[in-house]
Design brief:
Elements (H helix, E strand, L loop, with lengths): L2 H25 L9 E4 L3 E7 L14 E4 L2 E6 L2 E6 L9 E4 L4 E4 L9 E2 L5 E3 L8 E7 L2 E5 L1
Antiparallel strand pairs: 1-2, 2-11, 3-4, 4-5, 5-10, 6-7, 7-8, 8-9, 10-11
The protein binds FE2/S2 (inorganic) cluster (FES).
């Protein structure tokens, strides 16, 4: 192997090693289940998830959550909650914290770490405003999320 070929092969391998964990972590926790059905032209939020589908199974148990259409939906001890998925501070995704029954910004770095209640209100951190709260209704295994 010539010197140039060696370094080219080495850079591809190093890139694969360096970015592979990010590829895994990006897909974890931000799974977009089925695309849902519905949604109206003009961007009005109105979609339905079929909870009987394996892709939406996380919502069948209390403590589970998933992200669909930019909205995090959680099955909480108080019922289903749907909030805009991006922190109002600098836009990092929020995650459902089933232990504390709240939503936490995924950015836990210095100057971040916002927390939100189940209605989207800011309870800690630098976030300047609440997360948008969406309505939910369950009919059988069909969970509708709408504005
Ligand atoms: S981006 Fe969420 S607290 Fe900073």
């Amino acid at each position: 192997m010539r010197r140039k070929e060696f370094f080219t092969a080495l850079s591809v391998s190093a890139g694969t090693v360096m970015f592979a964990p990010f590829l895994v972590s990006c897909s974890k926790g931000s799974s977009v289940a089925d695309p849902g059905t519905g949604g109206t032209p003009g961007g009005t939020v109105d979609f339905t998830l079929d909870l009987s589908l394996p892709a939406n199974a996380a919502l069948m148990t209390v403590g589970g959550s998933l992200v669909n259409n930019g909205i995090i939906i959680a099955n909480t001890t108080s019922g289903y909650v749907a909030l805009a998925n991006l922190c109002t501070h600098q836009g990092s995704p929020v995650l459902y914290d089933s232990v504390n029954n709240r939503f936490n910004c995924s950015n836990t770095g210095s100057g971040h770490g916002s927390q939100y209640s189940l209605n989207g209100a800011v309870t800690a951190g630098p976030a300047p405003k609440a997360l948008k709260l969406y309505n939910t209704s369950l009919a059988g295994t069909k969970l509708r999320v709408f504005a």
